[in-house]
Amino acid sequence: MPVLSPTTGLHEMLALLTSQLHPDANHKEDMVFLREVFSERSLSYLMKIHERLRQFQLQSLTPVLHSASCLAEDVSDISTSTAVLIVHDTVAQKNFEPVLPPLPDDLDDELEEESVKIVRLVKNKEPLGATIRRDEVTGAVVVARIMRGGAADRSGLVHVGDELREVNGNLIIHKRPEEISQVLCQSQGSITLKIIPAIKEEDRFKESKVYLRALFDYTPFEDKATPCQEAGLPFTCGDILQVVSQDDPTWWQAKRVGDSNLRAGLIPSRQFQERRLLYRVKMGTHQSPKSPRASPSGLRRSFRLSRKDHQGSTKESHPAESTESEFLIYEEVTLYQMRPQDKPRLVVLIGSLGARINELKQKVIAENPHRYGVAVPHTTRPRKSHEKEGVEYNFISKQAFEADIQSNKFIEYGEYKNNQYGTSLESIRSVLARNKVCLVDVQPEALKILHTAEFKPYVIFVKPRIPEISRQCSSPTSPGRDLQDMRQSAEQMDQQYGHLVDRVLVKEDSASACVELRNILERLEREPQWVPVSWVRS
């Protein structure tokens, strides 16, 4: 055995004991276990801490604060392996659930052979997370739905179809569902429910992986049809929603992606929203998205044309094939991350009056021409002496241009001073084939053609910062008139094409807008983005 002196430290003693452990035939496993325990580095550190604290204790040092002395004693207590295990067991055995009052002893037998379940839930300021309805056949009050993530769902004790008999000892058989919901909403703390379980309880749900982009704004407190306004989920156009339950064909349960609130809320189902929008159209209170609309006033013209001298309107090259619903409601989406072997996504810039997006596009391309490119437009005008074929324009004859129109090769085209100009699909493909990000600025009507899996367009809506103006500045010659036109142009574009926009860029000035556009393009290549599911499904 090793010789120990009074000055031998605990960690030194531990090391000596470890060296003396020699397994024999009968206790080999025990010796191996002890060696592993004594050789544990964390145990050695604890022993050193214990020794250092004992040294301070022997020196009778006086702490500055009384709390420091208590803290030192606490650390000393837990620095031994035994104390650590005791602390673990003590904490593990503690009950951190709220203390509930005992169940009532005088439960009646009035329900005869029916199985009764007494459920006690703890509810704070959050909703209970369940809605109820009156069964049309039996007249019983039953649970209509369980909100995912709510108090009722987390308990696992309440299920769809359960019959509700009492709330906090009060019979609710003769109460209207609205009155019962009000009682449940106003109750705080412990809520006791007497329930007759459904014949077949639903299985614990598995959260759906369906994600939708909302294409309209929704405010539950303005919707009289919702079964419970407090349970509704408000959202705006462009929000991404995770649908966790479609059990109810009228009201789906969903969460807004990015919300810290884990509880699901009610949203109108696609079918229900379509039906009531169709009804409003028939009643003349809603305009169908596919009904004819006037073009936004003062939109920027394509092909570097002046609004003053423009003699023809830009035309859509061909009607886009579409299987979309008549109404803009939801679009199923998924996260898409570009891979090194993928072609870059097409970046489409649309702008309202005063945005000057062609200038913005040209600046970004000029700063990094190896990464960004522009689709070279076609024209029927003669080539000037300083121009090169395929650089400023692709120069073709009028007959060839007309043939390309008939073949639907242009995303948009127009006429200026008896010459035709157009941007073709092939000119975009040519840029992407060189592994460059193609930037195009088009009128928003062209989005119907470009919104395909081939191009996976990322649409940026550029609009100028418009200061507030006085209502008095409404005469045609007043400076405020131009600002009103710019605001109206932006509002109309947002109303008609906002559901196709991925990002809005508010242009303060040319320099800052250029910096922001560069940042957007860099994040587009680096970060995953939400895109329609049809773009990534094979």
TrEMBL record:
Gene3D superfamilies: 2.30.42.10, P-loop containing nucleotide triphosphate hydrolases (3.40.50.300), SH3 Domains (2.30.30.40). It comes from the Eukaryota. Residues 6-61 form the L27 domain. InterPro entries: GK/Ca_channel_bsu, Guanylate_kin-like_dom, Guanylate_kinase_CS, L27_C, L27_dom, MAGUK, P-loop_NTPase, PDZ. Residues 118-199 form the PDZ domain. Residues 207-277 form the SH3 domain. Residues 306-321 have a biased composition (Basic and acidic residues). Keywords: SH3 domain. Residues 344-522 form the Guanylate kinase-like domain. Residues 283-323 are annotated as: Disordered. Belongs to the MAGUK family. This is MAGUK p55 scaffold protein 3. The lineage of its organism: Eukaryota, Metazoa, Chordata, Craniata, Vertebrata.
